[in-house]
Write a structure and sequence with these properties.
3 helices; 56% strand; globular
Length: 325
């Protein structure tokens, strides 16, 4: 039944895309996507030997709009290996999708951006400095293969659904389970945003389903922003009672056209301390300086406070850099 539902959803999406492709397009136009994240960092105390220049990630791609309704996008993600002793770059296809917009409806199909923490990442605004909470602590993937739909019911409320493989964009689907997600975004006042999301990633062969729940509240105006999010992941790794909890608080202040100040506090914890070796509190604070239209430099200081007894606190200074078109 689930396979049939997924097939039906795919057919519906393809039908909309076919209709859109048959409409008379406006003048086609495209733009290159180039983003490069790098830093120089140095640890302090016990971490003093961890220092050097680092090229963290590069995004290279192209987005092409065929009129007002239809667009295609492809992005290559060039990043680090998970093996800390491997300094070679590894390339993945991050996005390869087609988008169709008509009225208040938006449809996406292919290797798409997921909806689990997309809004939180954009609101945080300093992805090149540090990933948003759910991405940083691996509550989910930022992209996956599947379909999504979003509908704007009014200026103040919208909803979205997504069905994807559930294994992220770095792995080939080799199981039958899928990830289903449902989200709602509410903007009751100017500058105020509320986001609620729930998702289930199916387990197979007797494995437990993974459940994700996320809540977000943020306010932004021309001078400053402030936000809070709370996240729950149940049965991490398809293991029963391997639950993770965490919240993140972050804020920024715009001093002038070229200078921002920002700060963030994260806290990750686990049920019955099963993840005690990785549970921690993290504080980051710094500034962002815009050096022209395409370059940003963000000096920042970070403190990590592990929850495990006897574990040393970690201190580090970073100069994060961003180049993007």
């Amino acid at each position: 039944m689930k396979r049939k539902l997924f097939l039906a959803a795919s057919l519906v999406a393809c039908t909309f895309l076919s209709v859109g492709a048959q409409t008379i397009p406006d003048e086609p136009k495209g733009k290159a996507i180039v983003q490069v994240f790098g830093n120089f960092h140095s640890g302090f105390g016990a971490e003093r030997n961890d220092r050097g220049f680092e090229l963290e990630r590069s995004y290279l791609g192209y987005e092409y709009s065929i009129g007002k309704s239809l667009s295609i996008k492809g992005v290559m993600d060039i990043g680090k290996s998970n093996n800390v002793t491997d300094y070679q770059r590894i390339a993945y296809i991050k996005n390869a999708l087609i988008t169709y917009r008509t009225g208040n409806l938006t449809l996406n199909g292919g290797l798409i951006s997921t909806t689990q923490f997309n809004m939180q990442e954009k609101f945080w605004g300093y992805r090149y400095v540090m990933k948003s909470f759910q991405d940083e602590y691996k509550f989910g993937s930022s992209a996956d293969l599947g379909v999504s739909a979003a509908y704007k019911f009014a200026d103040w409320i919208s909803a979205d659904v997504i069905v994807v493989n559930g294994e992220g964009y770095k792995k080939i689907q080799n199981q039958d389970g899928l990830l289903y997600g449902l989200g709602a975004t509410i903007a009751p006042l100017k500058g105020l945003s509320i986001r609620l999301y729930g998702g289930v990633n199916e387990g197979v062969d007797g494995e437990k389903n993974i459940y994700n729940f996320a809540s977000f509240l943020g306010y932004r105006n021309a001078r400053f922003s402030i936000a809070a999010e709370y996240n729950i992941m149940q049965n991490n790794g398809n293991k029963e009672n391997a639950d993770l909890y965490g919240f993140s608080l972050y804020s920024s202040v715009k001093l002038n056209k070229t200078l921002d100040l920002y700060a963030r506090y994260d806290e990750l914890s686990s049920k019955d301390d099963w993840n005690i070796d990785k549970d921690e509190k993290t504080v980051i604070a710094g500034a962002q300086i815009k050096l022209g239209k395409y370059v940003k430099v963000a000096p920042n200081f970070r403190v990590a406070l592990p929850a495990a007894d006897g574990a040393d606190n970690r201190y580090a200074g970073y100069i994060s850099c961003y180049f993007g078109l």
